[in-house]
Amino acid sequence: MLRLLFLLTCALALLASSVASAAIVERSFYVKNLTVRRLCSEQVVTAVNGSLPGPTLRVREGDTLIVHVFNKSPYDLSIHWHGVFQLLSAWADGPSMVTQCPITPGGKYTYKFKLLQQEGTLWWHAHFSLLRATVYGALIIRPRSGHPYPFPKPNKEIPILLGEWWNADVVGIEREAAATGAPPKISDAYTINGLPGDLYNCSQNRMYKLKVQKGKTYLLRIINAALDNQLFFKIANHNMTVVAVDAGYTVPYVTDVVVTGPGQTVDVLLAADQEVGSYFMAANAYASAGPAPPAFPAPPPFDNTTTRGIVVYEGAPTSATPIMPLMPAFTDTPTAHKFFTSITGLAGGPHWVPVPRHIDEHMFVTVGLGLSICPTCLNGTRLSASMNNFSFARPSSLSMLQAFFFNVSGIYTPDFPDTPPVKFDYTNVINAVNPSLLITPKSTSVKVLKYNATVEMVLQNTALLGVENHPIHLHGFNFHMLAQGFGNYDPVNDPKKFNLINPLSRNTINVPVGGWGVIRFTANNPGVWFIHCHLEAHLPMGLATAFVVENGPTPESTLPPPPVDLPQC
């Protein structure tokens, strides 16, 4: 009896400690126009709270985050909390017309959700039009009070947000692309924490500076907030130790280069262990499409500039010339692939979830480019993109999540296929301009999943109109990255390569150029969850679909009603 009473007392104390360590963090976002001077000219942009990037949100695992968004801009918008699980809070996920109608100019909406079962670096951004070029910021989730990191505690933590900049109105750029059917204009610069660096015109004094002390260690929380470019990131003469990706801990991995796709985050430890001096940090594009083979469509143009900041040791002479890192070639796929495939998950670490072994849903999904019929466009077609030849079209009258909750028909169709409608030699350049394979019909087609179903999805790149690395982002879940490779997926031999022990757990996978990736996850969160390419140029083209996860058998597995202030269409 005494032992039972002791155990009960311990359990109550643990529960009280858990509750006490959780806080309510409340912030307000005022989204409005901001005049910014970059690259020799002034540009009116949309920004949050008058800053670029927007405010960094700092919480602890278990906290409740409440963000009141006031839209004082001239555009519709919504905010997505990239990588947050949104357990039973799908109404707060944010993708426009998927989980909510957009917040109209003059409107407001309050996002409220708990940060549960994940720690590390995530971020938030606009999920409407190209507004996330300037509407974005970091979301940092630290362990609960009294819970240490699974790596040596750093002396300081610094968000490093890598972005893109246009000397133009990004909304106008998107509208022009939609009208002509052509790809949107490429960016004019990259930025580090909103600053382009001294390699651009009129930017000598617009460079991010990180001050360090010799002998100390810094946790860099690197976020690729670029719209359309994967990026290489280096610091001259310094190695970095990867300790987390997408708010999931990893086995420490030492590297001199970080590679990130749009939407991905990488946490690295930087030891200030070099001679006192100044060292450039730099980022430029990983242009996976590479040079075009004979008779193959030319790869799209990309921003081939370089942004850089500077790491300055305390005591460094001001007259010293900083050292520049040797950057990889733009098309250095071997370096990118090595980085993506060398990092493993920290099995047994905080919030680690073992790989599910039983599979309920097997899916083979092609991802790539194509064409859609467009009578008003040049040549009667526009560039398109698809998954399993279904080019996603957002609804316009009601969000998909509202249609799911209120059982409204006609908003989406539950017929997204588990396999492509036509099997072909997916990565063979012979098929690059095969007219029988290029046309991608528009639809709002989804895959319906039973609650708690385990899904394995093979993501297969195609060579249609070009090959490139596609960063595919899943809302509402992390998945295990079991394997990646080049060429066509081999269902007999490639499963032998699966890492079922300690694969990476993340929310965005870079499907290799001309290759494939395999992911696996458990659909234990009811709602409508977007899965799409995080290259912004490809999202409006239709490289997306959604999972509709049905409610479970208990109140704890059932989506609650929408908030009273949910925006209406």
Which features would summarize this protein structure in a list?
oxidoreductase, Immunoglobulin-like, secreted, 569 residues, apoplast, single chain, globular, 6-stranded mixed sheet, 37% strand
List the helices and strands and how they pair.
Blueprint: H1 2-21, E1 24-38, E2 41-48, E3 57-60, E4 64-71, E5 79-82, E6 108-114, E7 120-126, E8 136-142, E9 156-165, H2 170-180, E10 189-192, E11 209-212, E12 217-224, E13 230-235, E14 240-245, E15 248-255, E16 258-260, E17 265-271, E18 278-286, E19 306-313, H3 333-342, E20 361-373, E21 381-387, E22 391-392, H4 400-406, H5 435-438, E23 442-443, E24 446-449, E25 453-461, E26 470-474, E27 479-486, E28 504-506, E29 508-511, E30 515-523, E31 527-533, E32 544-549
